[in-house]
Amino acid sequence: MRTLKTGEFYGQTNQTLHLDFATITDTEYTHERVDWHYHENAYFTFILQGNVIEGNKKEVYTCTPGTLLFHNWQDPHYNIKPKGYTRGFHIEMNNNWITRTDINIQNLRGSFAIKNPQFKLHFYQIFKECKISDDSSALATESLLLQLLWGIGTNTEAAERQQPKWVGQVKEAIADDLSQKFTLQHLAAVANIHPGHLSRDFSKYFNTNVGNYIRAVRVEKALSLMHSGKLSLTEIAMQCGFADQSHFLRCFKQFNSGNPKLYKAMLAGG
Questions:
Q1: pTM attached to this predicted model
Q2: What is the β-pairing status of strands 33-39 and 2-4?
Q3: Pair 6, 100 in one domain
Q4: 87 and 169: one domain?
Q5: Which of 115, 118, 155, 191 is least buried, going by the fewest C-beta atoms within 10 A?
Q6: Chunked in runs of 10, what are the mean pLDDT values of the chain (270 residues)?
């Protein structure tokens, strides 16, 4: 089974950044099928455009724009690419850098999808910094990557403990229809718990309050729709449940510290 070296991915890599702590690539996937293989470094894959299917020993993921996967170095996987243009953004972490941090990456075993919208928004910020690439970008990227790893590690440990059933029900209810106006009473009814219980315990499992979580999901969904260039920002805002364009802009800047036009251009840039 082949082991891919640092910066090596199947396809056409259009940009590579070699930093002290990581190697970052922006790659067009060109192979219809890639057989089982390893990578010598632990890394993240972030799908920017198109679709790809990735399978490992435990799961198969259908990846669309906005899908974020983590792969530890020892985990083999394969890929199948449907027809059409597909583009991925990868961050391979330097092993010496990982050793110098206080993060035990061995707790992050195998390959898994990261679904937390706050973590995905964090990755969009890393993507932006890499595209801006000024004299502060490397520092900002390293700091953001450390925060992301710390958050994922903490979240994984928490996820190992059994969560109440209502947590998944609330996540699903919010993700299923972002266009609706959510209320505490409605979400509590979906979860079959008292509104006070939901309000009190929400942050324990979501690491934020209900309102901020819904805003984060909406902004993350908006970003995932920007890749094609076919939808205007107004259309994207409406599909994601924002009351108007100004509401969209306020929430976007709250979570991303940037202009949606800039992100739209970078995500569709290829």
A1: 0.90
A2: parallel
A3: yes
A4: no
A5: 115
A6: 92 93 96 94 94 93 95 88 95 89 73 90 93 91 91 64 85 90 93 93 90 94 88 92 91 84 83
